[in-house]
Amino acid sequence: MGWIYLLLAGLLEIGFTTSMRYLGWPPRILPLAVFVIFATASFTCLMVAVRTLPVGMAYAVWTGIGAAGTVLIGMAWYGEPTSTLRLVLITVLIGAIAGLKLIDG
Questions:
Q1: Would the pLDDT of 15 be above 90?
Q2: Please, what is the angle between helix 55-77 and helix 2-19, to 10°?
Q3: Structural domain count of the chain
Q4: DSSP-derived secondary structure for 1-62
Q5: What is the pLDDT of residue 105?
Q6: Between the chain's N and C termini, which has fewer beta carbons within 10 Å?
Q7: Is pLDDT at 41 greater than 70 in this prediction?
Q8: Does residue 63 have a pLDDT over 80?
């Protein structure tokens, strides 16, 4: 069950990091609310996941999912640079995350 919560936490992290693009100063209510909701849900799921998973591994997987997902969202929706090397490195990151899951058993 911990892995399910960890996967959900990582996906929610993609939501709150992507929503930061719309935060400004002074912050508007809707983007701020979206950020707070996603961040709170992500940290809550991570907190539940680390009850049954090693905290160091859970944190690495959580940040890896969030980083890879946010980069892919940026390339797909916001026109951020796409290169072969960038895609290879994201693939390596995802492979490392999968590797952590495999060695956990």
A1: yes
A2: 40
A3: 1
A4: -HHHHHHHHHHHHHHHHHHGGG--SSPPHHHHHHHHHHHHHHHHHHHHHTTTS-HHHHHHHH
A5: 61
A6: C
A7: yes
A8: yes
